[in-house]
Structure formats: C-alpha cells, structure tokens
Amino acid sequence: MSTGEIPIISVGPAVDHATSHDGFDEFCRAEHANLVRALSYALGDHELGRDAADEAFARAVERWDKVQTMNNPAGWVYRVGLNWGKRRVWRAKRGRELTELVPVRTQQVDAYADPDLADALASLPVGVRSVIVMRHLLGYSERQTAEALNIRPGTVKSRTNRGLAQLRQQLSPTEVPS
Known about the structure:
Blueprint: H1 17-20, H2 24-43, H3 46-62, H4 64-67, H5 73-95, H6 115-122, H7 126-137, H8 142-149, H9 153-170
Helix pairs in contact: 2-3, 2-5, 2-7, 3-5, 5-8, 7-9, 8-9
C-alpha cells in the first residue's frame, strides 16, 4: 500500500442493500400519503406532518428487517413520526425559532379537508388528536391504536370519547366523525 491510500477494513458481513429492503418500496407507496395526511392532522401543520412522515420512513428503512415483522409497521411509522414532530415543536417553542408551527395550520391538510374540522382537530391536545386521527382517519381499531401509540386500550377509549365530545361542541353534528 502506498502512502496516502486508505485501507479498506471489513467490520462485518457484506449486506446486499438491494435485497435487505425487500418490500419497503411497496410499503412506502401504500402508506406514505395516508401517513403524511394523518401526521399533518395530528401535528396541526401540513409541512411538519410531511417532514415527520419522511423522517419516520427514513428510520423505518434503516430498521426495515425488524419493522417489516411487526404486527403494524404503519402504526410504528406513525408513532415515530408523531414523536419526532412533537419533539420538533417542543424544541422550537423552547428556542422560540418556529413558534408558529402549532396549532396554526399553514396549509390546508388535503384538498378535500373541511377547514373547520382541521381547525377543531388542531385545538385538541396532541395525545387526544393522535387517537382521533388513528381511529377515524386511518381506521385503526382500539387495539391497533393502543399498540401503535404504546398506550392502554382504556386510554384510547377515554381519549376518543373526550376528543369526540370536544369536536361535537365546536362542529355541527354532520362534521364530527362517528
């Protein structure tokens, strides 16, 4: 080896990256748009929701061998994105850099969204909002929601009831999810 050359050191078995992420592309295509929408509602901001989903999917691909074997990989991605978004808001508020992120919506969350519903959801605490979004936007069962958010099913029930009651106070009966 001549001077200036960097030796190549092997630290483990070679990984074929083309096969180590089998199924991730299909998973991403199937779930990305729905999770961006759900995180946008849960975090109260479309840009933050998209960033949170992208970050969560990046973490999922890094751990795809483990994530793909979970009962609910999309629930894991949602929880990772939600936690990342909440930390970002907390840090922003603490540092006063991005204080406008929550609860102000900078963009309509999706083209068919009712702005009154989006505003009402943004007024809910994020823990309640995330349960409402998972149950009524993503269509998860109480058990799936509890597993994805790492909370008890009873907590899912109480947050759902509390959130729907608050939404009923703010919206007409036809606008409240059933």
